[in-house]
Amino acid sequence: MTNRVLMEKFIEFCNTHLGIETPCTVRLTKDRDDNGIVTTAYYHIASCAICVYVKDRAIMDVMRSVAHELVHHKQNERGELNGSPEEGADGSPLENEANAKAGEIIRIFGKQNPEIYTNNKWYNTYKMLEEKVFEIEINNDIMESKVIKELVNNKISEINKLKLEVLELQDKCSHKTVEVKNVSDGVVSLRKVCATCGKIVGYPGHDDLIEAGY
């Protein structure tokens, strides 16, 4: 299993273990300065984005940073973060929770995937890539995390359900009031549309067009 696949698997595990419900972008980079990393990682509250420095770090250490920041994302979901310096201070309740949870996640995941303890350097594999960062977000060219996939699939299911409900209502409608409107179905053209349910019921005739002012 490559480091990239192993990291994706780990992030999916964190999502499930922490019960994360909202999208969060995770960026792993070997460029600290260009990404504004002061220590080894950070979590941006407003954009729900995590950035982790990976150069010359063991993959287990990188994973611990990812887990730590994902705990902060969960705290953000619970409405516990407002960006004050006290929140990130050593020994604060929020930092203590992030440290403890990250350690717990590493122990559980490590029992299931012991290779994280023998893989010395994430960067040994990563440096062979031409790209500077590896991101997990909604992008066809980059990997997606499980939580984002699930959220997108849920939204698609909701939309499809609404479409079915609309079709059912349209089938029950008597279409008593019909208007002539421009409708796009690949190209914009005039159609007869039900004023009640919005269903296209046919093409307008000559009299319909005159009545509609065309």
Q: Helix and strand layout, with pairings?
A:
Blueprint: H1 3-18, E1 25-29, E2 41-44, E3 49-53, H2 59-77, H3 93-112, H4 122-126, E4 133-136, H5 146-172, E5 178-184, E6 188-194, E7 200-202, H6 206-211
Parallel strand pairs: 1-3
Antiparallel strand pairs: 1-4, 2-3, 5-6, 6-7
Helix pairs in contact: 1-2, 2-3
Note the overall shape: elongated
Q: Would you report the number of β strands?
A: 7
Number of domains: 2
- Rounded to the nearest angstrom, the radius of gyration is 26 Å
Summarize the structure.
The protein is α+β, with helices and mostly antiparallel strands and 214 residues long. It has helices at residues 3-18, 59-77, 93-112, 122-126, 146-172, 206-211, and strands at residues 25-29, 41-44, 49-53, 133-136, 178-184, 188-194, 200-202. The strands form 2 sheets. It has a 4-stranded mixed β-sheet with strand order 2-3-1-4, covered by helices on one side. The chain has a 3-stranded antiparallel β-sheet with strand order 5-6-7, with no helix packed on it.
